[in-house]
Amino acid sequence: MTPERVGMFSDAVFAIAITLLVLEIPRPEEAQFGDLAGFLAERQGSFMAFALAFLMLWFSWRAHHTLFDQLHRVTQPVLLLHVPLLLFAAFLPYTMNLWSEMSSFHGDGEASKGLALALFAGTEAILMFCQGALFTLALVQGLLNGNASRRRMGTSAWVYWGCGVLWAVSAVLAFSVGEDSTYLWMATPVVVAVIVFVRRRFAPGLVQPELPGQT
Amino acid sequence: MTPERVGMFSDAVFAIAITLLVLEIPRPEEAQFGDLAGFLAERQGSFMAFALAFLMLWFSWRAHHTLFDQLHRVTQPVLLLHVPLLLFAAFLPYTMNLWSEMSSFHGDGEASKGLALALFAGTEAILMFCQGALFTLALVQGLLNGNASRRRMGTSAWVYWGCGVLWAVSAVLAFSVGEDSTYLWMATPVVVAVIVFVRRRFAPGLVQPELPGQT
Amino acid sequence: MTPERVGMFSDAVFAIAITLLVLEIPRPEEAQFGDLAGFLAERQGSFMAFALAFLMLWFSWRAHHTLFDQLHRVTQPVLLLHVPLLLFAAFLPYTMNLWSEMSSFHGDGEASKGLALALFAGTEAILMFCQGALFTLALVQGLLNGNASRRRMGTSAWVYWGCGVLWAVSAVLAFSVGEDSTYLWMATPVVVAVIVFVRRRFAPGLVQPELPGQT
Amino acid sequence: MTPERVGMFSDAVFAIAITLLVLEIPRPEEAQFGDLAGFLAERQGSFMAFALAFLMLWFSWRAHHTLFDQLHRVTQPVLLLHVPLLLFAAFLPYTMNLWSEMSSFHGDGEASKGLALALFAGTEAILMFCQGALFTLALVQGLLNGNASRRRMGTSAWVYWGCGVLWAVSAVLAFSVGEDSTYLWMATPVVVAVIVFVRRRFAPGLVQPELPGQT
What we know:
Oligomer: homotetramer
Helix content of chain A: over 70%
Strand content of chain A: under 5%
Radius of gyration of chain A: 20 Å
Order of helices and strands of chain A: HHHHHHHH
Shape of chain A: globular
Number of strands of chain A: 0
Mean pLDDT of chain A: 87
Low-confidence stretches of chain A: 207-215
Number of helices of chain A: 8
């Protein structure tokens, strides 16, 4: 089993899932045609959900093929990890749909809104954990090419585990605080920056022996 | 006609079908937003159907490209077998939908539930028979690469024929015993293990001449 | 512009269209769950439409890549022909849907049934004309590889033009005779056989100079 | 990150979006089966929207891979530009749906029709601006292959920026003049011709040093 074949199948699933997202945005019904602007304004949460899910799958794709471009072989555990990774990537449109529908629901359903948010954030967290586990496996099982930077791969692993924890926490919080838990998502770039900074500051020894290989 | 081109088209159909499955999971209607947890709990059968159909297509993809990575050419019968293989792979989302809808149907419809299950299991059985036939054809028509293990290919052929029979039996049983026939599906790993064991035990002669090639 | 890139894009469109067909098969509504067998029996026309559209796209794909495997370059007219080819390949699911819905419609709508059939057969005819034109262009503009058989390509061109005429006639007939025009479709293999026979019998001069190249 | 990998992912998104368009064409409901011809005639705007959106995605794909065939590497800004490019390519089916539904809406909704048109034209404009920016970036950052024609790339950049401005203007006009703004779309070939003519006439110095490379 070559990395190319698994990489192409995963690429295809990411590309299809990212393009299917559009089918989950609510369309106006006959009665709502008269006031399209009002309909779209009320459904702005759906467009935000679409854009966010799109970005998430885009970054998942990038992380996946950044890794796979640097693998020289694929092991059974790496292959097995693709089952949850691709299952939840393919499932993301459903959770996006739930969140999108909920965001414009006016009835009495705080618990339902929290649940929809938790499912969306939880799916994201699982995707990130899978990516983190893939990077970790590649390091631990020695699957990287000769010219791959082990330090950069290690940082990527930490970044995905860290962001996964952040989104998992936001998923749990969504049950109690509802939509306020989405503020936590904005901390994602902060988590990334902190992890990159800490790795540079406290793990400098890792950098040295690789300097010739990096140029 | 090269194996690469047929392999890529099949890969694409499997990847699209596996990602389209998500469109078949029932979405809550306006009235059900208030109690999303209740809706999801009632529809848990749909999520199981989604996960199972996903796994089935994933294993179909793996079997297909494990075989195609080891073919050096493609014959007319191999090509013709792709018509039922891809037709039923593309059809699987429909049978998943039927089973998924039926699993949360409360009305009087034991016969309908059995039929939905039979269609799902039957589609799976056809997929497995097609895979078994592909492996068998590759062996009989001598299409394998020089470095492919004939013994392992033969075991794969037996495994797919055996699992196909199991699922075909469960499809027939579904008409009379309904959902209880799904317990038979859990025997799939047992069937695999028994076939692998029997092949190792009683067809050892096949192993010897290949030992050097396997390393 | 290389044949590979155009070929892969067309492959992708064919693969997606062939897998989207399943979404056009009518699903039972709540009230029909109780009698699933009755629903499926009534909708058998839909399953026939699905299988036929699947076969059509499969043969379109095969014709397309059989040709493209033997091209060494792509010209502007070849590229332009892909606009109607892919447009109507992508449109086929819609006409399949119309025909499928019509086949189980009990109301007073002979004219509508004829129209739905005419649209389906007309779309097929356009696909075949595009394929015929592609084969003809490849011959006329000298785009074939050195080891491609000009005679076989010429026969393919004639086959697609001939079948296109048959389906175009059936589309026109559908307006007056309705579903009886579908009997004409069964003549497709006959048309293919006659064209292949006539080419072999009356254009033998073309065969001779190529004999060494064919082995 | 190689151009091949990004190019293939973009190809896949374009191919999927172009094939998903068909799902957005309105299908007749039970009550409309009796008069299918009437239904289709009334919905002719939807078919025009489908064909136009198809053409737009086709040209987007062609522009994208014409460029990517001539890149030797990909930079971070080029990669970042793919986020809006692919996001709006994937979003196009939604705006096509809005325009399609609006075109056959008989109620009182001039403002809604203008908005639907504006969203469709605006999405197209964004796609063109992204393509223009990609061509410009490739020139400015020196990403082109040795045998790529800098002059032709420059003309492509101007063409996409120019057409983008035309469609952006039509999007703004749609709010006040409604459907009449679509006449502006017909000026697209004129804009292309003028830009190509002006580049040839007033930037001839660019042509000379490349003449040997062009043959």
